[in-house]
UniProtKB/TrEMBL annotation:
Identification of the protein by name: Transcription initiation factor TFIID subunit 4B
Length: 121
């Protein structure tokens, strides 16, 4: 279900996608306040007229979206210096190290790779 980026870390988009799936699998319960809609969040968003609410989506011009993109700094696919990244991948393959599943394993992997590289210098 979740995909991992370099070194096993989940990208922000992957986290958002996973949160959306979890959120959309729930049902918002009816409230005592009859003005509060209930139902599945995705259906409520896509078809507001079914819930006698208004569509609050604001259309954006393509030029405005492009201006925002040109002013953004996107993370590169490689999270560090390319040479270090390649060395770490080689060391992981040689040592049969696995991608970390949590932050503690990531820290252990980092320390192991760091020590291996430093001792090679």
């Amino acid at each position: 279900m979740s995909r991992s980026g370099p070194f096993g870390f989940q990208s922000a988009q992957d986290e958002l996608d996973e949160t959306t799936c979890v959120w959309d699998s729930h049902v918002i319960r009816p409230s005592k306040n009859d003005r509060v809609p209930s139902g599945r969040p995705k259906v409520m968003y896509m078809f507001p007229e079914l819930y006698t609410t208004e569509d609050c989506v604001s259309p954006v011009e393509g030029a405005d979206a492009q201006l925002c993109r040109s002013n953004c700094t996107f993370r590169p696919a490689v999270p560090c210096d390319t040479d270090i990244y390649n060395i770490c991948n080689l060391l992981m393959m040689e040592s049969q190290l696995n991608l970390p599943a949590d932050s503690y394993q990531a820290l252990d992997l980092y320390l192991d790779l760091r020590n291996t590289i430093r001792s090679s210098l």
